[in-house]
Amino acid sequence: MTASNIIIEVGGLTRTFTVGDVDVRALRGVNLSIERGEFVAIMGASGSGKSTLMAILGCLDSQTGGRYFFGGLDVSALHEPQLAKLRREKLGFVFQSFNLLARTSAIENVALPLFYSDEAIEGAQRLERARAALELLGLGDRAQNTPAQLSGGQQQRVAIARALINGPSVLFADEPTGNLDTKTSHEIMESLLSLNRDQSLTVIVVTHEPDIAAYAGRVITMRDGQIVSDERRASPAPSRPPTPQQKEASAAMTIFHSSRPAKGALAQVSTLAFASMIVTAAVQAIARNKLRSALTMLGVFIGVAALIAMVAVGNGANAAVRKQIESLGTNLVVVLPGAVLTGGARSGFGSASTLTVADAQAIRREAPEVGLVAYLMRQMGQVQLRNQNWTTNIQAVSLNYPPVTNWRIAEGRGIGADDERSGALVVVIGHTVYKQLFARGENPLGTTILVKGSPLRVVGVLATKGQSMWGQDQDDLVMIPFKTGERKVLGVAAPNQPTNLTSLYPPPPNPFNLQPRLTGYVNSIYVQATAQTRIPAAIDDINRILMRRHRIRPTDIKDFDIRNLSQIAETAEGSSKVMAVLLAIVASISLLVGGIGIMNILLVSVTERTREIGLRMAVGAQRLHVLTQFLAEAVLISVSGGLAGIAAGVAISEIIAIFSAWSSPVSLVAIAIGFVFSVAVGVFFGYYPARKAAQLDPIQALRYE
């Protein structure tokens, strides 16, 4: 035996396990050297320490004391990534229980170690190499069969092919025939003997059966953690010659192993292939448990869909508020008359006739921060066409009123300067009045209707505004020129008397055809500030002008009230935004619940797949590989649920918009947040199970029941 030919050398090797309060010495100062190309059988009764010795030699476990050299390398000084590299490049493992991945084809089981190879091996090349390894073991025709479709002997051959896929220097077989019948056991041993002789592969077999040990050229017997005999045999049992197909497969495997890139190239391609390897392994793991994966992603799916749909509904609410703001007009301030004082009791604002056309003109003339000014008189009254009648809001408006309050004409024309100057008997009707008086599709233009008994010709139809933020129908009205309303239709009550705004009755008989008293009083004045930021200054100007005109001292009660409609609208919009945020928070709770579900399932998965984790480490996976694979599974499940939730959320939003009057515009920001949130849920809730999987000890994981 020459030092240069020794591949394994241990000296004074000990291993102690602590079971409760008791220390169990599994190995007691083992000394052993194994040359390259040897076929060694380690025998002994149960508890003799043979499996513990093999686990340490295979870098699946670490010794308590002593030294271990592999090919001159001090294994006891290596860290976990270096041990994993040694396992995937130099060592192969065959286990008594096969340790094949369920619901996975034979060729994919064989290709498993290639996922963790330092080479950048593409999918097609992995399968080609795995197929050659199966051919070498005589299983080329069973490549697509799952373990459940293979016999025990075939499963063990698949395990041997998996151990050979990376071209190891040493093959460890722990009770490889323990679960097989006698005939199949000898077939497996003949395959191992053939590999030893034809490819000069070092084979170490752990067994307690003498007929299995007879295939080895060297038999080591252990008892109570020590080597009690080391016997070399000149003529081990003969092996069957390989078939032509196996010779061809062996040549292919040799070509594969000799074509590995140089060491410098490995470092370059490893990083590039790492992400692809992890994602591929994660996808395969998810695909093996489709139903469980689908149910796991359901929580994220519901959360993201609810988030997008609820944000869309909230955006619809904001859009409705903005529409109401636009319908009011921009930068708008409304001046209302004061309250009537009757027997010490004051009515609400607008109950007295204290504002006049002259007040409106003074505001326009004297206030520098004011743009347009409009005013109106209004009463409730009946409109009639043939046998149809309807009680509505009759408004006598100034020329500036429609543009100031953002009214637009849908058909016909609006009230013109000539109409106002001459007090023309014309009227513009709202959409609600049109529906109540006219047949569907009937042209109202040019038709004469009675407004509080006065015949007026319809010259236009107003565009619809819908309901106000207070729930009032803004389209239930008619507009007439202010002079027409003041002189011929509405009239005005005497000063300081209540204006009848709620009368549902026509005016009293007028046998002498007397004109209403002209007082110049208005029910409200609408003032448009020059800019949104100038509204406070405009309010100050209006207040100063009206107090001077009405001779009101600072200590007196005002007979007018100034209201900032833009401020009211902003408050309503703020409330709707708060509601949208609350809806999003509720949806986020669903995402949180979905994340907890992912963590729970992955924790169960780690326990269920403990032996699989041990197997992956045995074939060369580092703890980092295991951590990132489980983390990738969590992220893929979460992201898949998130993408499906995005599609469902968009669909729900569109359905709401189609089947209801409420618009629900989809927010791209909500989609982005939903996607990012689903990724974050996968990372946050997947890290702990992934870390738990990565911290498992390889040998303990392999022995987990």
Total number of strands:
24
CATH first level of the largest domain:
Alpha Beta
Number of helices: 21
Give the domain tally: 3
CATH homology superfamily name of the largest domain:
P-loop containing nucleotide triphosphate hydrolases
As a whole number of angstroms, the C-alpha radius of gyration is: 45 Å
Read across the widest sheet, the strand sequence of neighbours is: 6-7-8-3-9-10
Largest sheet: 6 strands, mixed
Query: Would you identify the CATH architecture of the largest domain?
Result: 3-Layer(aba) Sandwich
Helix content: 40-55%
Terminal Cα span = 41 Å
Overview of this structure, please?
This protein is of the alpha+beta class and 705 residues long. The chain folds into three domains: 3-260, P-loop containing nucleotide triphosphate hydrolases (Rossmann fold, 3-Layer(aba) Sandwich), CATH 3.40.50; 290-321 and 572-702, no CATH class; 339-558, no CATH class. Helix content is 46%, strand content 21%. It has a six-stranded mixed sheet with strand order 6-7-8-3-9-10, sandwiched between helices. Strands 15-16-21-18-20-19 form a six-stranded mixed barrel. Strands 2-1-4-5 form a four-stranded antiparallel sheet, with helices on one face. α4 (123-136) packs across α8 and α17 (565-608) packs across α19 (623-659). It is rod-shaped, with a radius of gyration of 45 Å. The model is unreliable at 261-269, 341-351, 493-508 and 510-518 (pLDDT under 50).
Topology:
Blueprint: E1 6-19, E2 22-35, E3 39-43, H1 50-57, E4 65-70, E5 73-74, H2 80-90, E6 91-95, H3 106-111, H4 123-136, H5 152-164, E7 170-174, H6 182-198, E8 202-207, H7 210-213, E9 218-223, E10 226-232, H8 244-258, H9 263-287, H10 290-328, E11 332-337, E12 341-342, E13 345-346, E14 355-356, H11 357-366, E15 370-385, E16 388-397, H12 401-404, E17 409-412, H13 417-422, E18 426-429, H14 431-437, E19 448-451, E20 454-462, E21 477-481, H15 482-489, E22 521-522, E23 524-529, H16 535-549, E24 560-564, H17 565-608, H18 610-618, H19 623-659, H20 668-694, H21 698-702
Helix pairs in contact: 4-5, 4-8, 5-6, 9-19, 10-17, 10-19, 10-20, 11-16, 17-19, 17-20, 19-20
